[in-house]
Amino acid sequence: MARNIPCLFCKQRRRKCEKLEEANTCKRCREQNRKCIIPKHDSDDEQLHNNDMHLQSLYEQVKQLEKQLASLDLTLKSQQKLISGRGQNDEPCWELEMINGQLRLKSKISTLEELLLYGKAFFRYLSPFGNTFHNTSMAFDRIYPSFLQTAIQLLTKYGIGHEVNSLQQQQQTQAYKSILTSSSVVKNGRFSGNNSLRFVQPHLVMDQLVNNYFACFNDSIPILHEPSFRKHYVSLKDPMDDPVVLAVCAAASISTCRHSIFYNMFERRYIGEHFFKLALEKLLEMFDEPEHALETVLVINILQIFMVATLRLNESRKWASIASVLCCNLQQEYVHDINDNENKEAKYLARVRSAIIHRNSVLVHCCKALIEFLLGENLNPVPKRICPFDILPDEPQKLKDLIVIMNLLFKLAFNPAFLIVMVQARNISAGDTATLTFEDIIRYEDLVLDWWHSLPEEFKICKEPYNLTKDIIQQTIDYRKILPAVYVYGVTMSIQACLIQPKPAKNLEHVHSIIRERAINMVMHAAEMTLQLSKQMEALGVYCYSPEKIIVRSIDCLVNLANIPNESLSRKAKLKLREHMHALSRVVPAEHQVSPDVSPYSLLTITPPDSAPDVFELYKNYPLPAEALMFDVVRTTVAKNINESNAAN
Fold this sequence. Notes:
By secondary structure, this protein is mainly alpha-helical. Among the domains are: 1-40; 164-374 and 383-394, no CATH class. Helix content is 61%, strand content 4%. The protein has a three-stranded antiparallel beta sheet with strand order 6-3-7. It has a two-stranded antiparallel sheet with strand order 1-2. Strands 4-5 form a two-stranded antiparallel ribbon. A hairpin with a 2-residue loop joins β4 (185-187) and β5 (190-192). α15 packs across α18 (479-497) and α19 (509-540) runs antiparallel to α20. The longest helix is centred in the N-terminal third of the chain and has 41 residues, at 44-84.
């Protein structure tokens, strides 16, 4: 039987070349409107030559990646030095001169690093305190390590993030789908009937899922240009063949907000698994084709929502790495696209493309950092500076307002004075000792005040950031004023919770007392305000906002306060903990509220690693394992700390 010789296009991509009957072209070339070229000879010498060419191409790609990694490593070291390398011995000297009553710099500054060092030194030079506080570093410990960090370190011992081959992934998917379509499924530790899933037809709900995606996800993560996507979606003959549409449906299926069209979380997971499988098949076909680079990045970023929610962390990490490489290449090309287009319409399309590339690149970086954090590989990643997002004129007004708010938050979050304190606070949360100077803390607080005062009035809930009250929040009906306040109070709470326990030092007792008392009051106030802000956001119903993350962050900080050796403060913290746990129970679906009687996390805390089952196996019967895991960890840790605090008091 004659051997079927593949065409050059399929052969280069190592894809199966399917010849169409009575046609001179293959299926893949026809779909992509390419000329199908069949090589005249397929001798061993030619095969060896082709293999050599392919190996050479791979070698060049590896060399290019090595150069990019080296460049990223230099950038990383530079950022780390800017953030944490504040040694006085490394500071250069500068000459100043007085001209016409003005103090001017005479020396030349050649690098950004030197400029930042000069700015810090100049402020010290003008300060009436001189070097008093700069030379005095204060060390801080956390009373009780962050339970999220502790839980992640524990869970990494029991299989989460361990290498899973494709056969095991397929078995996990099939096992879950068989559970869903069986006569019973696990719900709160008990089994309940769910035969209705047998009659669910995913393709009939695609239109509603697309609408839900833009209502629930694209506002928070605006990686799709809605007008362009809508136009593309309407033009499709069969949406089930489009990878981006399939990814959108997979992500929208597992939404826990009020827009969901499904009755329970089991139906959502079943629909999500269906679309995820189809999207992944399309992704595997196209991810190594340069002409589909942006489409590949879009699909990966959208599917990350589903992969993280279902604890496919190892798979998520793999695809995030691929997307990161693709984004580096895309960012180099889109600048030329804008400059080369003179036609007005073509120039705008290039602008849309560049905006989407930039937004997706930012999301890729954030996804990698999140996955590494969840896997316990990098508990304190160095933040990467983000350029402002471009606001496209034909996007919905609500999205425009949200992007304006994001850009304002970027100005605060990537200021060097902010990063110094934030990075050290993360070290403390991880259980390490961190050092800050009094000057660092003052500069950070002044920065937050100045940033708040510079906000446009339409984004400012009150004149002073820390004068917020419950009455002010309840009277606010503009969600644009609530979002900046949520960010400021969330960050304030996380940082101040790390300043509660300064390590004893000679001649600094008074300073430590001031910092400690202020930190305790700020955490208590911030926890109360973030809870009220989240309730008001939910009541307004304009913006699809899930308060789970901010409530969990508040609980983490309050657990720290509950362990303070002060009976009155500890009692207040425990009361707030109960209030926050009640609020968390309201927003977490009942299907994910793990019963204390069947808590897998409680089992893991007392089981040796060599005899414990895989984490995925313990949570696989819940619709969204990640959410069930989160609730289980929080509930178990809060109960344990409240009981221990009661025993101690």
